[in-house]
Amino acid sequence: MPILNAIVHRIADAAGEASMSLVPATAALPVSSALDDLLAGVNDAFNAKPKAWGHFAETTPEGEVSSPLASELGDYLDGGRDFVRFSRDLAARIADLVSAHLSLSGDLLVLDHQVGDNRYLSLALLHHRQGFGIDDQLAVVPVRQLNLTQMSLAARINISQWQAGDAKPYLSWTHDRGGKKMAEGFAALVGAEESVDASGETRTLLKAFSDYVEQEGLPEEASREKTDALIDYASDQVRRGEPMTLEALSEVLDEQQPKAFYDHIRNADYGLSPEIPPDRKTLNQFRRFTGRAGGVSISFDSHLLGSSVEYDEDQDRLIIKQVPKQLREQLTRQG
């Protein structure tokens, strides 16, 4: 992933004060293999976190300009301001936000980089931890390390989609510390407006999948294979930081009938977008419980526990509230 520009600005404790101050860099970082590795690590850490997805808001609810970031970014891309000035102005606003909500110092990493055909602007506030190393004399020495998993604030903008006027959510952002007010402050600072409910869309997709499996009357083994295929695909997209595509998912689920699941979604009108940012937490809840004993075989998706299926631990009973149509017809005929 070629790096076009990169810089680090430090947000540190002000001497003798409770607030934070900005220690700005005066020049961009030279491209190096270490910087490439750092970007890869930051991307992995960012992709693993829950995120909001959306776009730049033009105005606030009060009718004011939402944030100068969009116009400043456009100015930088057009050559109206250099990268150092652009990133320094952004860092100054983030320093004010951190000062109001955090007591942790950190380094703000800002990168302009290319991934395939897309250009991105990524920013992440990184903190440090104390570690240990071995020097050339084989002695143990303290080492100050970046803690990539501890991102207080991070955001990524798909510049290519934004400039093309793409309707897809081209802006994603996350927050790990500081509470609701800091999260709202960061979204306002970026000028971000959430346009996709990743958790809700992922839940709806999983509901559509469960309906599809039930409608097709698939045997347990085939159902489990398709569930594993869905989870594998979605988890891979989480790691890549990219949305799930309904058509691609449909092909993954059934190579012989690659449009079957896609047609099921469209015909049932679940209201899903063609591309869905996967929500890791929701996916982790989508597992299957299976068991077989004494001629009884039971298998169901874990997210149904507590709704369509209940387990009474005291009586050791499993209560199925919504009997599958195929099973219900068999029981009716038997009676």
From TrEMBL:
Pfam families: NA37
Statement: the UniProt record of this protein carries the keyword Cytoplasm: yes
Gene Ontology MF terms: double-stranded DNA binding; single-stranded RNA binding
InterPro entries: Nucleoid_associated_NdpA
Location of this chain's protein in the cell: Cytoplasm, Nucleoid
An annotated GO cellular component: bacterial nucleoid
This protein's UniProt keywords: Cytoplasm
Organism superkingdom: Bacteria
Membership in a protein family: Belongs to the YejK family.
Stated name of the protein: Nucleoid-associated protein
